[in-house]
Amino acid sequence: MDQQLLRAYLSTVYEFPTGSGPLRASMDGDVPNDPATLPDLLTRPFAVLTAYNPRSMLLPRKVNEGRHIVMRDLLILGCYRVEACVGYEEEPEGTWREPSWLVHNMDREEVLAAGRVFRQNTVVMCRNARPELIITDPTFDDVGKVVVGHWRVRA
Question: How many domains does the chain have?
């Protein structure tokens, strides 16, 4: 995977829903001294999935929205708790925003399958308070590679 694309994925800011309001976090943080200092959500197992723009190919808004709803329905039928979240660039000139699903307690193999079925370059998983970026695009030489990040809570 191109290093610039990898850096963009790791620096993506995710806005997650919590009981106390939105939580903003990215995967480009430093190694935490104590994971217990992280917000509760970031210590639990979850995945971040999207059906938007397969293989980084920009699709019309209506097509993306339809794919996204189908993904949500399949996740719910699979008995997963699903909440809306969003990933975006924090750069001042950044215009990229991608609706995503926060999926609680999803099995790793199912996360990877969802990424492949919906033709995503990568998926995000959180296990043991550590985010993982997993490459699911079979056109990349490093398909299946896991890049482990560290949560960075944003203000």
Answer: 1
